[in-house]
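Notebook entry, structure prediction.
Reason for the run: the old model in the group folder had no record of what sequence produced it. Starting over properly, with the input documented here first.
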Amino acid sequence: MAVRLAHFSDIHLTARPRGWRPRDAFTKRTTGWANLALGRARHFARADEVAAALRRELAGRGFDSLVFSGDATALGFPAEMTAAAERIGAHDPALPPGLAVPGNHDVYVTSAARARLFEEAFAPWQHGTRTSTEHYPFARKVGHVWLIGLNSSVPNFLLWDASGKVGAAQLARLRDLCAALGPGPRVVVSHYPLLMEGHRPEPRWHRLRDWAAVRDTAAACGASLWLHGHRHRWYWLPAAPNLPFPTICVGSSTQSGRWGYHDYTIDGRHLTAARRVFDGATGAFVDSESFECELK
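New structure, fully documented this time:
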């Protein structure tokens, strides 16, 4: 029986008031706010409207599961996180079950990661099989498909650093988890790409720092597909000599002019993907490109 998944990412919702505190002046939140004020906010001026339309899509198109690959917020404030989870419907029983992992904006500062703001706000989309007391990775079976949530986002201190890391400890847990899973395609969901367009690593300060080790571990664990966001323009990469399985970047689901999400049907190990994009004139999503690939 075929499985249908909705994949969306990088919605970057915010809230008013955000909840600034004096100590935030000495963190990346200040430079992030400046970046918003200098133009980034314009790219997400209709994000709330698009998120509302996306929520209607998620509820009404017969999906078996939702997949969210992170960056719910702009600056990782608690108020933003709560608002984002509410607006996208993470606690709405009318929506299909979901699986979610944080993006780098969701752990923008160390306090956000320590307080587990993302995990609390998106708790209904964090259920799954684990082989340790650590939160990541975890797996959930949808039909014959295993969805595996892997956290690749970490707080960074340098103002220009937007890189990520999975880490050796989490990779060891991934090996243990995959050894405990039954048969079926294994779809890894994480925020960061392994490779960008052209099968090339991302620039140093934007990439997954341990991408090669993550790639090799995922391949050894039988990964069939890698789903991610982080880069705001969508693309997909077939398997290649430096990429053992296909990867798909859904892009930003709410950024003006790039807004969209993917509707996947996995029949056996064949994936059919339909891209749905937001029509600014009608306020609804419409069909766009499509592609197909075989899962490893």
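Summary: Residues 3-294 form a domain with the Purple Acid Phosphatase; chain A, domain 2 fold (CATH 3.60.21.10).
The old model has been moved to the deprecated folder.
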